[in-house]
Amino acid sequence: MPANHRNPHGTPSAELPAPAFAVLTVSALNRLAREALESALPLLWVGGEISNLVRAPSGHVYFTLKDAGAQVRCAMWRNRAQLLAFRPENGMRVEARALVTLYEARGDYQLNIEALRPAGIGNLFEAFNRLKERLAAEGLFDPAARRPLPRFPRGVGIVTSPSAAALRDVLSALKRRASHLPVVLYPTPVQGGDAPARLAEALRHAGRRADGDGIDVVLLVRGGGSIEDLWAFNDEALARAIRACPLPVVSGVGHETDFTIADFAADLRAATPTGAAELASAGFHAAHLELAGLAPRLQRALQRRLDAAGQRVDRAALRLVHPRERLRQAAMQVETQQERLRGALSRRLERAGHGVARLALRLRGGRPPIARAEENVSALARRLERAAAERLQREHLRLARLSSHLQHLAPQAVLARGYAIARDADGRILHSTAGVEEGDAVSVQLADGRLDTRVATITR
């Protein structure tokens, strides 16, 4: 650096020495910082309050985790976010299992969230996630294995406690939407230590009794509560019983934000018990709405039919005549036709009489002279006889000439003049030497007989 170089404050400075190591780029620095953070801090749990939550179209979730004294940015990728059993919201206190890292593009320190649970649930939520992940890996929650609900079920089975408010909600919804639909209750406790086993047995009993009880769908319902209250529905045996049930199962456990293992195993999840009843009766409700929409159309179509029929009746009434009047009109028509027929017949007979008279006059005036006609006929007969005799003589002469000429051209006459007909062994006439070999049998037809020969030589 030149000696007269000035520093940023404008004062002269001495020449700076060259750096003893390579200068890092910002990207390299951020990468080193990220690697140092990730290697120094293990996967850990961090508790705090959610704020600035954003759900990206890609499925990733971004938020800030804060407490009274600090905050840190967090990112939860889609493959982790879609496994959440609850919906994170701003202001919710949570515990996050996270990896401390650094977003290199901006140099922001952040947490990559691996798992998330509401604060205070602790071991229960962890057990829920472990069971959910294990059953999902087995394919127990495969959407392709879910059975569709019948549109018009014969009856509905309900697995719940007889004293549960959820049962009243379900019955009220079914009565409102499909009051004719039979309902069969399979009573079981929905809370307590033996509830999971009792729930699974009730489902199996409903499957066995389906034909006899006349049900086509089973509703597994319970009202809302804490995670501890709903824990009976997070049982592995219950989940397997749901999948083994021969009928489609609709789960309606808790409220909209409550999720249980039973929800994931069921063929269809409803946000509430009332929602489960609405799903089971959706076909009847939709049919009722369709019928309500078709009623005005049917009424209009019926009115159009009635109007058209009325018009046809009116037109027929105009054409309708009393039988006595029709007979009177027919008699008048017959009389009129008789008069016309008599007049036409008289006129025709009169014309025919005139014609006969005219023909008689013509016949008397046009009688031919018979004697002169007889003479003409006799003369013509004589001329015809002479002409026939002359024609017959000419034809005899012509026939003689043709016969002589034909006799001259007959095959026998040709053979008599020294010609011959050669045939091969199959009797076919030989027109040339082609196809004939030495030693072949050949017959030669002459005028007075036939020679059977064999070919000695062939000269072509």
From TrEMBL:
Signal sequence residues: none
Domain (Exonuclease VII large subunit C-terminal): residue spans on this chain: 140-453
Recorded catalytic activity of this chain's protein: Exonucleolytic cleavage in either 5'- to 3'- or 3'- to 5'-direction to yield nucleoside 5'-phosphates
InterPro entries per record: Exonuc_VII_L, Exonuc_VII_lsu_C, OB-fold_nuc-bd_dom
CDD domains in alphabetical order: ExoVII_LU_OBF
A Pfam family: tRNA_anti_2
EC number assigned by the record: 3.1.11.6
Molecular function, one GO term: exodeoxyribonuclease VII activity
Span of domain OB-fold nucleic acid binding: 24-116
Keywords assigned by UniProt, alphabetized: Cytoplasm, Exonuclease, Hydrolase, Nuclease
Location within or outside the cell: Cytoplasm
Enzyme class: hydrolase
Main location: cytoplasm
Protein family: Belongs to the XseA family.
Function: Bidirectionally degrades single-stranded DNA into large acid-insoluble oligonucleotides, which are then degraded further into small acid-soluble oligonucleotides.
Quaternary structure (record): Heterooligomer composed of large and small subunits.
HAMAP family membership: Exonuc_7_L
Record's protein name: Exodeoxyribonuclease 7 large subunit
Gene for this chain: xseA
